[in-house]
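Example with several molecule types.
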Amino acid sequence: MNASAGRSRSWRRAALTLLVAGALYEALARSGYFAAALLPTVTAVGQTLWAMLIDGTMLRHAAYTLYRVMFGLGLAIAVGLPLGILMGRVPAAEQFFMPLVSVLMPIPSLAWVPVFILWFGIGNVTTILIVFYAATFPMLLNAWSGVRSVNPLWMRAAGAMGANGRSLFWKVIIPGASPFIVTGFRQAFLRSWIAVVGAEMIAASAWGLGWVIFDAKEFLNTDIMLASLAVIGCIGFAFERIVFGSLERATVLRWGMVRAAKG
Amino acid sequence: MNDDVPHAASLGRVSAHRPRALWDGARWRAAARTAFPFLVVGGIWETLAHMAIFPRRLFPPLEEVASSLASLTAAGIMPHHAVETVARLLAGFVLAAVLGVVIGIAMGRSRRAEDIFLPLVSIGAPIPGLAYAPLFLLWFGLGDVSAVLLVAFVSAFPIIVNSWTGVKAVKDIWIRSAQAMGADERRLFRLVILPGALPYVLTGLRLGLAQAWRILVAVEMLAAVPWGLGWLIFGAREFMNTDVMLAGIAVIGGVGLILENLVFKRIEEYTVVRWGMMTS
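Resulting structure tokens for the full complex:
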């Protein structure tokens, strides 16, 4: 009872914080101290968001962005996951790829945008490749450390029970590495979500949530910028919680590899 | 602030010189194994560049990239760009580190602070930092102020979250035994909670620095600063100087490598590893 009382107090305080922050912002926006074009009221942002949702432009921007993220993330998983597992299993592959990975990884993906624009032009190809570059490394590193972290005792036990190479791989190594692999998916998604916004701003095409923010800056449409910002945040939050949360529940939690976070 | 760059470079020189006595066969073999993949990739690049399938302006051979890197460095242009970028990075990061650690520890220590800040952090964190960039540009104008503030804002999130987790992860039994031994609130904080949370705080700082570095390169492209590595590669695109762009990317990667491996490994060795909180 005590815990639930504490929790409801936390909820009340959280709601209160958001209300106070919103009210402060609204008061600042309405005070006329700053130009209305730079600091639109919450209602103005809400109206813009609603109008853009109704006429479908916001949905189209979001669809373009999601398409680029999914394509790039799919490529990154298709390359990073097998390569990471290979590096974890085969020492020669590890010795060959690890130095390359550790040199390429600290280069921010967005630093490649100008080069990729020259090579592939403005548009989807450049954006997707930037997403791919950003998402591959977390995927690869997590798969690699996941395979290496599989308890050798399990492998020997399975070997003693007569598992051949194939079933050892599918029944022991892959489930054993799964917590890391799921973390890899999650980090790869977050990275690609960050990268796509930046890539869309610089390698501008005509649609996309990053592009619309940057385009709105040119016309001082701060309400459009804040509305798109809200949509970007909501989609990122939804993916993080719903998609990856349920993926985690369906795999690693069900297999008892990790416990659900407390509280 | 700028004198941190030669400092980092001298760290690299020291560690490269020290193991000279140990250069026996095994070390040579290890070095050759590390160099091998670069030779293969470099060989493929060179072959493609010299086969002239792609226009040479867009796909320059490595010797051209190296020579423009050398001439830019000799002319002092590349160091100037790099110093400006690192200065911006440090300014933003120090701001984020101070604010982030203070807010994070406050959130871990006081229920009230947690209830106030957690909703704001969990709404702000999933939005990619660059999405705020145009907003910051409108509010604070083009140039250094926007770039530094954006870097600080974005890299504060992982620092806050990790400091908060770190304080909460301090073992109850340490706190209770310190209290049983008569530690007052102040000594408890300084001698138990702070060192106990430090591994998490350091991880947060490392994540924050990596985030700051990634954001900064992109912000320099958008914020039209007069000097900076991001601006260098973005400006070089206008003149199709692919060799300059690749040289700039190489420097960006090099600085990133130095930040991650030399600076943070040292800090960890001096603090948490020495205290036995983590194994290196």
